[in-house]
């Protein structure tokens, strides 16, 4: 690991100030950043420790919830309001990582965790995300845990978060304090960026921006399902996951918020899929049409071809469960 | 940097480079070599310790981030005699080479506390609580600890026995 300065921030303002210097990075649970620092995939000059900032509360907020950035994944999954009103979020969190990791992983860190693409991790191979302009070893290389939606000629790295998929399905907002102290709200739908020709830029955040919370609106659907398919039954990232927030009225789908993991270069949601489902009675044909819509722009590699039929089946199974 | 950790109930001050993981501080600086380094990347659970009562992977945490924290390692589980969980591991052959065992013990100790607090798991049918340590629940809740010798039947039997004595299952 490269040497770095360690600063423990006493309050959010001090954290933002310390993080505004070049080469500085926040550290929260550390479960992703330290993993990458050990391999020197990331090598910050300064670590600004935000783990003791008073951002660890879950509060009722405008009919929804405001989840502090340093709330751990396990506390969030176990919160009774989340379990009862946003079960999709508890389910997504509990489907991720392990008990030990969830005790450290935080809301902000989970949103910003980096890809698990093996070439991003291997500093001996080219990676545009790690070193802009170097090339992409995954294109034409060994693929499996890679994206098939939102890819570019420069990057096919997958966003690995489960939690973020549930938050997208719920229509969450990310609350950010900028380096100058102003608060900004980003819709989850606009928070992540597609790789394009700048895959190293993953979100709309600016240097020094501190995520302070995630806001959940009152849920628009009471039928919530998170289904994750992976290489082993537990403690593995998603090959495909689908999160659905559905409201039924008189046998028809009155609201559909469907988001996907394991498929996109960012936590995926497609307004056309939601629109297609809305107003219709659930049927196998409808769900197949939704899969056609979802996958219309998909670009698979040899190693990710299997995700096309898998995504279709997981989507169908999720929607059947959520609408029955 | 100088930090103070309360390890197995004793306050200890150490001077560590910011790069040192909690695991390396325990093993290298403090001579507590019970906690093991399997992967050093959060993938095996051999380094599991309890921090302020919660199980974490000590390999993926910086020692300097734990100034003032209470740490329990496998060396601190026994209180004069083996804890019921430790005794159950001996009784049920919960190990072969023993490399994963300190992590299994610390993890299971933390896990039983989570169960008592009514935390749900991926294996739970309902999110409403009232969980019992079924085979599915146990395997899921302990999935963060791998055993290369595949002693899972013995490990699970030991944890179940300790849980029953505890009244948790
Ligand atoms: C073996 C293993 C298996 C895993 N399996 C899964 C899985 O199945 N599903 C899944 O979703 N995840 C999984 N994870 C990933 C895990 O969820 C993440 O490592 C974790 O959520 C990151 O949170 P953290 O608080 O530890 O982040 P950190 O490592 O502290 O930070 C990550 C990044 O976020 C930035 N950051 C953190 N907080 C803030 C903030 N408030 N404002 C601005 N920037 C911030 C940091 O600067 C850093 O760049 C796994 C991890 C491991 C090691
Ligand atoms: S050594 Fe920490 S999880 Fe493997
Ligand atoms: S007893 Fe050998 S690794 Fe578990």
Written description of the protein model:
The complex is a heterodimer of chains A (324) and B (169). The longest helix of chain A is centred in the C-terminal third of the chain and has 17 residues, at 307-323. Chain A has a domain at 223-323: 2-Layer Sandwich (Enolase-like, domain 1), CATH 3.30.390. Helix content of chain A is 29%, strand content 21%. Chain A has helices spanning 12-19, 33-38, 73-78, 80-85, 87-94, 99-102, 107-111, 118-121, 163-169, 188-191, 271-277, 284-294, 307-323, and strands spanning 5-8, 24-27, 46-49, 58-61, 64-68, 173-177, 183-187, 210-216, 223-229, 240-249, 252-261, 268-269. In chain A, the strands form three sheets. In chain A, strands 4-5-8-6-7 form a five-stranded antiparallel β-sheet. In chain A, strands 9-10-11-12 form a four-stranded antiparallel β-sheet. The relative contact order of chain A is 0.13. Chain B folds into two domains: 2-76, Roll (Ubiquitin-like (UB roll)); 84-166, [2Fe-2S]-binding domain (DNA polymerase, domain 1), CATH 1.10.150.120. Chain B is built from five helices and five strands, in the order E-E-H-E-E-E-H-H-H-H. Chain B has a five-stranded mixed β-sheet with strand order 2-1-5-3-4, sandwiched between helices. In chain B, helix 2 (84-91) packs antiparallel against helix 5 (152-166). Chain B is globular and about 45 Å long. At the A-B interface, strand 1, helix 2, helix 3, helix 5 and helix 6 of A face strand 4, helix 3 and helix 4 of B. Residues 25-33, 35, 50, 69, 96-97, 101, 104-106, 108-110, 112-113, 160-163, 210-211, 237 of chain A line the site of flavin-adenine dinucleotide (FAD). One FE2/S2 (inorganic) cluster is lined by residues 95-101, 147-149, 151 of chain B.
What's the helix and strand layout?
The complex is a heterodimer of chains A (324) and B (169).
Chain A: E1 5-8, H1 12-19, E2 24-27, H2 33-38, E3 46-49, E4 58-61, E5 64-68, H3 73-78, H4 80-85, H5 87-94, H6 99-102, H7 107-111, H8 118-121, H9 163-169, E6 173-177, E7 183-187, H10 188-191, E8 210-216, E9 223-229, E10 240-249, E11 252-261, E12 268-269, H11 271-277, H12 284-294, H13 307-323
Parallel strand pairs in A: 1-3, 2-3
Antiparallel strand pairs in A: 4-5, 5-8, 6-7, 6-8, 9-10, 10-11, 11-12
Helix pairs in contact in A: 5-9, 11-12, 12-13
Chain B: E1 2-7, E2 10-15, H1 22-29, E3 48-51, E4 54-57, E5 70-72, H2 84-91, H3 101-116, H4 135-141, H5 152-166
Parallel strand pairs in B: 1-5
Antiparallel strand pairs in B: 1-2, 3-4, 3-5
Helix pairs in contact in B: 2-5
The structure holds flavin-adenine dinucleotide and FE2/S2 (inorganic) cluster (2 copies).
Flavin-adenine dinucleotide (FAD) is lined by residues 25-33, 35, 50, 69, 96-97, 101, 104-106, 108-110, 112-113, 160-163, 210-211, 237 of chain A.
